[in-house]
Design goal:
This protein is mainly β and about 110 residues long. It is built from no helices and 11 strands. The strands form 2 sheets. Strands 2, 4, 5, 6, 9, 10 and 11 form a 7-stranded mixed beta sheet that branches. Strands 1-3-8-7 form a 4-stranded antiparallel beta sheet, with no helix packed on it. The radius of gyration is 13 Å and the shape is globular. The model has no long low-confidence stretch (mean pLDDT about 95).
């Protein structure tokens, strides 16, 4: 069983930054990819970003240029650096590990508000 634990969420003003972490109980390089998703109140969960085991990244159009996904295998952790945050970025952020099975973390709340 794989455990994923997100952290780093919080309340931030528009234009601010946060860095989310997702700590894995297994090497992140053992997965095909690690993804970040978010779910705003009353909305469906949406994909935000992916980082593959080879280091390739992809982003939702609305976060391109503002969010950066990275990984640190020594720490079994992936990160999502979020800059220039907007109120519409508010939601619960989840990480997902894509391997033989998909594994989800419990989520961390991000609130962007003045």
């Amino acid at each position: 069983q794989v455990q994923l634990v997100e952290s780093g969420g919080g309340l931030v003003q528009p234009g601010g930054s946060l860095r989310l972490s997702c700590a894995s109980s297994r090497s992140v390089f053992s997965f095909r990819a690690m993804g970040w998703y978010r779910q705003a109140p009353g909305k469906q969960r949406e994909w935000v970003a992916t980082i593959t085991s080879t280091g390739n990244t992809n982003y939702l159009d609305s976060v391109k240029g503002r969010f950066t996904a990275s990984s640190d295998n020594d720490k079994n952790t992936v990160y999502l650096q979020m800059n220039s945050l907007k109120p519409e970025d508010t939601g619960v952020y989840y990480c997902k590990a894509d391997g033989t099975y998909g594994y989800w973390g419990q989520g961390t709340q991000v609130t962007v508000s003045s």
